Structures are given as structure tokens and as C-alpha cells.
Amino acid sequence: MSTRRNRAQRGSVSIEMAVVAPAILALFAGAVIGGRVNIARQALEAAAYDAARTASLARTAGEANAQALAAAGSTLDAQGLSCTSLEVTISTSGFDVPVGQAATVTATVSCTATFSDVALPGMPGSVPLVASFSSPLDTYRSRALGFGITGASDAVSPSGGGP
């Protein structure tokens, strides 16, 4: 009688595996995509940090924009993050604040990261990510006032000599 029972159950393992295998694969793909989203988010945060820090070291708002865009692109390339749409926005309004007052530069990096190489049907093929970072401008560093004149660098020395 036990032989009859074993023969009847022989195909049940195959059927169970056929039912469970897609769930296991979906769980594995979800874990891989979750890990890649986390890595992409960290890369975006690093790019926003580098862009804001680089912009805060520039003398003018124009230089800050150009240098920050280059820094963000360089960081994303080094991290190996590929985006279908990438947008880097630099808020340089801090350069308009008078010397002696606190000011910041903010970089915002937006990216749509793709996971089409891992995604299964029903899984997200891309995820929109945004990261932002603010970096302070030196309160007493001279800032460009326009027309090639800077706040403190063109001051005349008290001894009566030139700059």
C-alpha cells in the first residue's frame, strides 16, 4: 500500500516547484531592483553633494552653474549610473546676498534610473529619483558684484597704496 501512495505523490514535487519557482524568481528580482534603487539613490546624493560643494567654491553664479554641472556629471559617470532623463538644477541666489550675511548654494539632481535589464513583467522598469544638497558660501569671502568688480579684492589699502 505504501508503494501505491509513493507513486501517486511522485509528480506533486514537480507541480509544487512549477508553482513556487516564479514567486522565488520575482522575490529575487525584487531584491536586485531594490538594491539597485538604493545604489542609484546614493549615487544621486553624492552627485548633488559634489555639485553644491563645487558651486559654493566658485566666484560667480555663472561659474558656479558650469562647475556644478560638470561635477554632477563626473560623479554620476564615476558611479556608473545611467539615467534616461537627467536634470541638474543649481540655485545660485546666494551669490546675490551681500558679503557678511549667510548664504547657500543648493544643487538638485533628478534622474530616472532604468532597470529594464533586471525587470520582470509587473516589476518597475524605471524609477524617478531626486536628491538635493545645500552648501554654505563663505560669509566673508568676496563675491562678484558684476562688471568685473569684486566685493573685497579691489579695496584700497589703508596705507594709501593701490590694491
How many domains in all?
A: 1
N→C terminal distance: 107 Å
Stretches where pLDDT is under 50 for at least 5 consecutive residues are 149-163
Give the strand content. 15-25%
Q: How confident overall, as mean pLDDT? A: 79
Listing every helix as H and every strand as E from the N terminus to the C terminus, the arrangement reads: HHHEEEEE
Q: How many strands in all?
A: 5
For the largest sheet, list the strands in their spatial order. 1-2-3
Report helical residue fraction: 40-55%
Which of globular, elongated, flat, extended, rod-shaped describes the shape?
rod-shaped
Number of helices: 3
Structural class from helices and strands?
alpha+beta
**What about the largest sheet?**
3 strands, antiparallel
Please compute the radius of gyration using only Cα atoms: 28 Å
Could you explain the architecture of this structure?
- This protein has 163 residues and is of the alpha+beta class.
- It has one domain.
- Helices cover 44% and strands 23% of the residues.
- It is built from 3 helices and 5 strands, in the order αααβββββ.
- The protein has helices spanning 2-9, 12-56, 61-79; strands spanning 83-91, 103-114, 126-137, 144-146, 149-150.
- The strands form 2 sheets. A 3-stranded antiparallel sheet has the order 1-2-3. Strands 4-5 form a two-stranded antiparallel sheet.
- The longest helix is centred in the first third of the chain and has 45 residues, at 12-56.
- The radius of gyration is 28 Å and the shape is rod-shaped.
- The termini are far apart.
- Mean pLDDT is 79; it is low at 149-163.
